[in-house]
Design brief:
By secondary structure, this protein is mainly alpha-helical. The chain has one domain (2-120). The chain is 72% helix and 7% strand. The protein has 3 helices and 4 strands; from the N terminus they run ββββααα. Strands 1-2 form a two-stranded antiparallel ribbon. It has a two-stranded antiparallel ribbon with strand order 3-4. α1 runs antiparallel to α2. The chain starts with a strand and ends with a helix.
C-alpha cells in the first residue's frame, strides 16, 4: 500500500489516474470538481444574460433614434419600413434577453442545466 499523494496521512489502495488517493481526499476532490462545474454553468449563463441585455439596450437606442427622427426628410414608405425593421430587431433582442434570464433563473433556483450546456461539457 502507498500513502495518499494529497494528504500523505493515509495508506490507500485506491488510485486516481495512477496517483494514490485516500477516500477522504477523493471525496474532497469530487466535491470541488462539482463546485467548479457549477460555477462554470452559472458564469456562462450570467455572461449570456449580460450580452443579451446589452444587445437589447443597443436595439432600444436604435429604435428610439429612428422614431425620434419623425417627421424626417425620408419618404414615408421608407420611414415606415425603417421603424418596422427596428421594431422587429427590438422584439427579437427582448425575446433573447428574456430567454437568457429564464435559463439563468431556472439554473439558480431549480438547478436545471440547459441541454446545450450539458452537451458542450
Amino acid at each position: 500500500m502507498e500513502r495518499c499523494a494529497f494528504c500523505k496521512a493515509e495508506e490507500t489502495m485506491l488510485y486516481e489516474s495512477g496517483v494514490p488517493i485516500c477516500l477522504k481526499c477523493a471525496a474532497i476532490r469530487e466535491a470541488n470538481s462539482k463546485k467548479d462545474h457549477a460555477a462554470g454553468f452559472r458564469s456562462e449563463l450570467a455572461g449570456a444574460l449580460t450580452e443579451a441585455t446589452l444587445r437589447n439596450e443597443l436595439t432600444t437606442m436604435e429604435f428610439n433614434a429612428i422614431t425620434g427622427d419623425i417627421p424626417s426628410s425620408i419618404p414615408q414608405p421608407d420611414g415606415a419600413q425603417r421603424i418596422h425593421n427596428a421594431s422587429g430587431s427590438l422584439s427579437a433582442a427582448r425575446d433573447e434577453m428574456i430567454k437568457a434570464h429564464r435559463r439563468l433563473n431556472d439554473y439558480m433556483e431549480r438547478g436545471i442545466v440547459p441541454e446545450d450546456l450539458k452537451q458542450s461539457r
